[in-house]
Amino acid sequence: MGMLPSSGPHLHILLVHIPILGFIVTTIWLYFAIRKNNLCHQKGCWYSMFLLFVVSIPTYISGAASRWNIQYRDDLDADLGLVFLHQNVALWTILFACLVAILSWFALWRNQRKGDACSRLNWTIFGLGAITSWLAIQAGSIAGYSEVIWKCCCAIIQSSSYLRVVNPAANAPCLDDKPRGYS
């Protein structure tokens, strides 16, 4: 699996880590910026949260492409209940990320117009950012600690035309055994 995505599931696996880690780091960063009353860092957090929401959109769409790839394949025995649960939690994550982005944009606008940062607005953005981070962690743990991720990897290998050209053995069905240390 190279760094350039060759399919929807491959793109999802590469993109998914950016919003999860980004929201966690930016929420912690915003907490310390509010506590220190540092307007420059608060503005950086507002910009970051808005950009993380923008990155979340193709992440969710590529996740939907992964679900379609898994759902309509007869050769994979994926637990579709877990896949749909993962997708529903991801949808709630992107909805909360949208709220955070709207409030962050409003905080930037308010700062530009009035020159100050509203404490209640900052703490609201922080609270919604913490909820978004928690939901992103939950969505990631549903996929990462279940067999969904292994089915997704199988779908990537089997659906990637790049791997079929370079590696003809990629057309072989996926092995059902799990990696070492997997319980």
Describe the global form.
elongated
* Continuous helix count: 7
* Major β-sheet profile: none
Q: What structural category do the secondary elements indicate?
A: mainly alpha
The percentage of residues in β strands lies in under 5%
Ends distance:
24 Å
N-to-C order of helices and strands: HHHHHHH
Mean pLDDT: 78
Which spans of ≥5 residues are poorly predicted at pLDDT below 50? 161-183
Radius of gyration, CA atoms, in whole angstroms:
19 Å
- Strand tally: 0
Bin the helical content. over 70%
Explain what this protein looks like in three dimensions.
The protein has 183 residues and is an all-alpha fold. The chain contains seven helices and no strands. α2 (17-36) packs antiparallel against α5. The protein is elongated. The protein starts with 7 loop residues before the first helix and ends in a 17-residue tail after the last helix.
